[in-house]
Structure formats: C-alpha cells, structure tokens
TrEMBL record:
Upper lineage: Archaea, Thermoproteota, Thermoprotei, Sulfolobales, Sulfolobaceae
SUPFAM superfamilies to which the protein is assigned, alphabetical: Fumarate reductase respiratory complex transmembrane subunits (SSF81343)
Any one cellular-component term (Gene Ontology): membrane
Protein name per Swiss-Prot or TrEMBL: Succinate dehydrogenase
Keyword Transmembrane: yes
Organism for this UniProt entry: Sulfurisphaera javensis
Keywords: Membrane, Transmembrane, Transmembrane helix
InterPro entries xref list: SQR/QFR_C/D (IPR034804)
TM spans (from-to): 14-38, 50-74, 98-119
Secreted found in the keyword field: no
Amino acid sequence: MKEWLEFNWNIERYLALLQMITGWIIFGYLIFHVIYVYELSKGLEINDSFLMPLLAIFGIILTFHIVNGIRILLIETGFLIPKNHQENTWLNYKPHKVYKIILMILLLISAIVSFVVIYK
C-alpha cells in the first residue's frame, strides 16, 4: 500500500487507478439510474436538461472503462507482452504502445460522438 503513495508512478499505475475510479462511477450511475427510472414510473416529471452533459461525460467514462478493461485482459492473457518480458520492459513493447494509441483515439471518437448525439 505504501507504493500507492509514491509519486513516481508509471502509466500502468494511473490506468489501473482510473479503472477503479470509473468502475465506482459506473456503479453509482447504475444506482442513480434505478432511482431515476423508479421516479419516472411513479409519474414524477423531472427536468432532465441538466443531465445531458452528464450523459456525454458518462459515455466517455464508459468507453474508457470498457477499452481499458480489454487492454488489461489482453495483458493478463499475454497478448500485449512479449514472451521474454522478464529481460525487457514490456511497457515499451510495440503492440502495447499501439494499443495505448488506439485507446486514446477511441476515447476521442467517443467524446465527439457523445456530444454530437446529445446536443444535435
């Protein structure tokens, strides 16, 4: 636990932390969603114009969580690391770098699509 308080983190530590944070945000959204739908089923009228920016942000968070989860799955199954990764640092391995670039491109596309769909 002491290592989490050090400030010389690599990108993997930040991505793992963001994975946990976005997981809790998604869990909170699910609770909010159930309460919101319950209130709507009771006939309560809710002005949801303030929710539109939050839905766009949630789309980006959800995309990050899914794509980063796939990245973690590919690392755990050995697809993004070389077989001799004990000798080399696997963070600089070419497929891993390419996947991080793909992750950033998907997040940018997700942000654009989220805002276009919500604000059209």
